Amino acid sequence: MNVRIAPSILSADFARLGEQVQIVEAAGAGLIHVDVMDGHFVPNLTMGPLVVAALKRITTLPLDVHLMISEPDRYLDAFAQAGASTITVHVEAAPHLHRTLTRIRELGARAGAAINPGTPAGVLRDVLDSLDQVIVMSVNPGFGGQSFIARSVDKVREVTALTAPLLQGVDIEVDGGVDLSNAGALVEAGATILVAGASVFGQPDPAAATVALLRAAKAGRLLGS
Ligand code: DX5
Ligand code: ZN
Predict the structure, then answer these.
(1) pLDDT value of position 170
(2) Quick one: which of 11, 84, 121, 150 could link to 79 by a disulfide (CB 3.0–4.6 Å)?
(3) Could you tell me if 123 and 144 are in contact, meaning their C-beta atoms sit under 8 angstroms apart?
(4) How far does CA 214 lie from the centroid of its chain?
(5) What is the reported pLDDT for 222?
(6) How much distance in Å is there from the Cα of 122 to the middle of ligand 1?
(7) Quick one: pLDDT band at residue 220, thresholds 50, 70, 90?
(8) What span, in angstroms and rounded, lies between the C-alpha atoms of 6 and 9?
(9) Is 154 a residue of the active site?
(10) CA-CA distance, 159 to 190, in Å (whole number)?
């Protein structure tokens, strides 16, 4: 699977959001990562379906919606209608995970499950057929700009082994603290999407940062293949 960079708008300048998204799109970003936080599942509040709908009007990139919220089922319809391409819920917030993933697909979106650093990869075993994407959290969710947890590289390897036999082609996305120092190793371990907040929008030149990250990721793919 081709490797893609998903800049996280959490670190973007919200007063110039459209412009910033178009800059990284032109630089070769593969998706736009949208972090939804509810102040309950995680200790921070961010954005909702309105922002997804607004982004849909100004970019052709897939919108990769990461729900860090309790009771995600209540909002699946709204995010699908707003134009989410992938909707990812946290396994820690979804007690009926199989039903939730099935519902996301029924709504016409790709279905994702995210696992926190403290959650073992094995929790995905019984829902593998219902998955289009896994997010391996490499920080504890809630904030941009945190330090990468090194153990996540092994976690990516474990998820890669779990999903390898599947026919549907599952994206393995890594989220949190991804930068030039770890991008290659993550792709070599099996990651197909790298989320990047601080290492793209936190940089003086987000376009150049996107290009550099993509280059580092592709170098990792050469090692891994
Ligand atoms: C963390 C979010 C991430 C965050 C990543 O809770 O899910 O998507 O924006 O930001 P960086 O790349 O700065 O760690
Ligand atoms: Zn995220």
Answers:
(1) 97
(2) 84
(3) no
(4) 15
(5) 79
(6) 23
(7) confident
(8) 9
(9) no
(10) 8
Please give the average per-residue pLDDT across 87-97, as a whole number.
98
Going by pLDDT thresholds of 50, 70 and 90, the confidence category of residue 223 is confident
Mutation pick for ligand 1 pocket among 5, 8, 37, 115 (CB with most ligand atoms within 8 Å) = 8
| pLDDT tens figures, 8-33 | 999 999 999 999 999 999 999 999 99
Whether 175 is a known active-site residue: answer: yes
146 lines ligand 1 (CB under 6 A): yes
The reply to whether ligand 1 has any atom less than 6 angstroms from the CB of 33 is: yes
**pLDDT for 225 beyond 70:** no
Q: Is the pLDDT of residue 211 over 70?
A: yes
83's torsion region: left (phi>0), alpha (psi -120 to 50) or beta?
left
Ligand 1 contact, 198 CB (< 6 A): yes
Of 35, 38, 132, 171, catalytic: 35
Catalytic residue among 38, 132, 171, 175: 175
Give the number of the atom of ligand 1 that is nearest the alpha carbon of residue 8: 9
CA 178 to ligand 1 centroid distance, Å: 8
Cβ 175 under 6 angstroms from ligand 1: yes
